[in-house]
Queue: 3 jobs
Job 1
Amino acid sequence: MSSLHDTLRRRVDDGTVPGAVGLVARGDDVEVVAVGSVDVEGTAPMARDSIFRVASIGKPVTAAAVLALVEDGRLALDAPVAEWLPELAKPTVVRTPSSPVEDVVPAERPVTVEDLLSFRAGWGFPDDFSLPAVQALLAFQQDGRAPYLQPGPDEWLAALARIPMVRQPGAAWLYNTCSDLQGVLVARASGSSFPDFLAERFFGPLGMTDTAFTVPESKRARFTTAYSPGEQGTLTESDAPDGGFSRPPAFPSGAGGLVSTADDLLAFGRMLANAGAAPDGTPVLSPTSVSRMTTNHLTAAQRDASTLFLEGQGWGYGGQVDVTPVDPWNVPGRYGWVGGTGTTAHVVPPTGTVTILLTQVAMTSPVPTPLMREFWESTAGR
């Protein structure tokens, strides 16, 4: 048995997770390990094609969709988003990050497409969740792991526009909200629904047949049950295969609404590693777009202000970009992210390495779980 198998098996045996799928690929060399079960009852073994709620590791897909529209000439990185999102034409910003939500000033400049991609639009979550404007955002944008509870895009955007920004546009990296804004932007700029656009431009060409915002009845036998950690190591069911993802959501969340499999995510990661090309050589994204996605766009000060989420690393478009080898797995240029449902996916473009970990137990904070760190260590240098 491999070190990857041993790593996952230990956490299944100690009850941390009911099951897990781990994948590491470099070129045509692919190792996939599936251990445990799809639920705590052990009704079916975990399998390579098991379907998971992937949460925030879908953020790179959303960013890629925005860049596809930039390539099409429908969007421009420096264009104000108010052209497509008029609800955001006159945003307000709290006077200081700690000011009450009633103490606001106008935004100093318009929010641009690039602000959304780099997570510097002004809405989102900083390291300090106690700030009044962040509390207002949390009350509105609740647990992103349950996107099926959100209202429709128009209602969602109108509500967001009434919440003041935490920081001025361009000033700070703030987590999560910008990906949902990107999804709404893609729908309006393309004239298509967000799910349909992703299916046409990415899921179809890349053969990502199990990636979507809902799981049809024909696939639910492969759909894992979701859990939250409880006290004393217990696991509490948070969503069943016939639950929230069994029907199309009112709000297709660009921040974390997708379900997927290890092989589907491998296809997307290989596309990034291949400078935007599908396996048959068909361009899905341009090399320029892939470079923009996988290049750090934050200043050192912005990284230092976001250590809870980024741990000193950078941010590209849709994912973290390693800039310093803090841990053995931090290879400069490594790109990817973690999902609050217990998932991770990364690609190292210089080596073509793709690593994916899928579990069904939610994180309890932005800090990666011990299993995630163990997985990254076991696949480092592969």
Note: The longest strand covers residues 19-26.
Job 2
Amino acid sequence: MYDFAIIGGGIVGLATGAALGRRYPFARILLVEKEAGFAQHQTGRNSGVIHSGIYYKPGSLKAEMAQAGNQSLRAFCYEYGVPFDVCGKLIVATTPEEIPALEGIFDRSLKNGVPALRLRPEEVKEIEPHVACLAAIRVPTTGIVDYRQVCHALVHEMQQQGGELKLGTEILQVVPTPLGHLLETTWGSLETRFLINCAGLHSDRVARLGGMEPQAMIVPFRGEYFELTPQRRHLVRHLIYPVPNPAFPFLGVHFTRMMDGSIHAGPNAVLSFKREGYKKSDFSLRDFTEVMTYPGFWKLTSRYYQEGFQEMFRSWSKAAFTRSLQRLVPEIRAEDLIPSKSGVRAQALLRDGNMVDDFLVMEGTNSLHVCNAPSPAATASLEIAKRIVSKVPRPGRLSLVKRA
């Protein structure tokens, strides 16, 4: 019998396990992950950015947790010797039409308390000589890190605390019991007093196994990247972002310097035909059918079909992808770009076609389900974990009363 069982070995699940161990050092804590290693999906395939929180709606959980997470993650990395670099980023306007939106982002930075500086084109050239723009904002608190290394540090912390971690263990069934939950897995039965679902791309399915009715369904969007050839890495020094299109809920292709010195360009955002579909050819009949029969998907498509076609065209046309990058760095050529690994974003989508824009956590009987943890979830992972731990009962005081 475990006091707490966590499903999912990404950064949110691991951070939650470590946070539980710090708060309840004598509790029996179990974390199960269906893959053979940790951080195999969203965590290990993101852009590695430590976000500042500049974009998010003031007062939202995203804004609050991104800012707090920016600081707590850096402190964690410093404590555990995980390399990181607070290199800052530029948000650049390349057309006159983007100037008002850029000013809106600057105003939001003031409301969110995120340091930001307006820059003229000649000032931008001092930081990024190859960027073409009419105006820009510099965000000095944005950084980069390898989130896989952060996860390795969290695994080490859990092990030092006495927590148990089981890899290659998939959840097949969740059965309520008088004492909590019985978990039927590919490696046998496990029992826990309290269940925490951090299953990412499969969080809605795990919630249903636990008897919950999620407000939204996970729809997978694949983000495809290129990276610059080593000879052309000098064209980008830090992080360069466009002004996001307010009519489209994704940031658009941008340049990111990684911890290994490589420069990644992307991502675009296209529907994936498989929840873990990292290649264009990946297909799951179950995943595809769920999306195609979900009313929310078609309502979303009717709203963003033009942008969606542009993303699909850019997915299949390297020339179109290159043109998007040339808006930021005109010297980029198609031959400078080589394919890089893709990622899949678990986007929670409501039946009315609206994307869940903030963190979505559902509380059930002796259970808690993280049903939407979009970017900046990696940056905010330690803060998300603190909030989760604040919602779980102390060991020995677990109740079968459904929490409000």
Note: Residues 120 and 135 are 5 Å apart (CA to CA).
Job 3
Amino acid sequence: MRNELKKKLYFIEDYTIITLGLLMFSLAWTVFLLPAKITSGGVSGIGAVIYYATGFPVGFTYFGVNIILIAFAIRILGASFGLKTLYSMGVISVALTVSQQMVKEPLVDDTLLSAILGGAISGVGLGIIFNRGGSTGGTDIIAAVVMKYRNISPGRIILYCDVIIIASSYFVLRSIDKMVYGYVTMAVVSYALDSFLSGANRSAQMFIFSRKYEEIADFINQQSYRGVTVLDGVGWYTKENVKVVISVVRKRETGAIFRKIKEIDPDAFISMASVMGVYGQGFEKLKL
């Protein structure tokens, strides 16, 4: 009974956070990018180009193009698309349509500032969505279809699609400046997305060589609440037995650990490396 309740609460939490990310993504477009006539990548970019040319709402285009892509992909790849992708597609379509009707004036007049703010908020929104296992569909679907027949990385396919979509805005707006701002936005989105996904939860693996290893291990274990492993080693130059303290911690926790190690043993030797991902025991949950 308790496990079922936990699953329901996690399900609600999951979709609540994904919805927040979807709304951020949508508002980035309608508040900053569309009023400045900036085109970024993805299906939203296609919708923006059509909007600049015809005035047709971006939300309708986003929904229509994604429906076509999903139908096309199901025919080729099979019905393997999750509920979160369909949910995200629906929320973004509605949010873009509603917010576009509400926002009549640009929030900022500077085009470069609009590109940076729109790209940053859009990137963080996508980071929130991806961090909870969601997907916005679009060029991701194109990448999945192409990968079935060609050995090309999905990142490269998405990049090619985004470059073509942004370049197509020139034929509508007839402005090199707007096209360049589109590429600026694309770069900011990529940077913000990567920073969000790896920055807040970035971890470090520490190797500490010290004669006072017990005090250091106790501090990390009791004060930082992180697991510690102590291994036996041999210093090959001195041929002396040494103890090696190994721990994986959050990057933000390393400052306090360094200060304490300096206080306990100023002569300690420390090696620290960034790690790509840490799962279980106080870190990230392993997601399939």
Note: The CA atoms of residues 41 and 159 lie 8 Å apart.
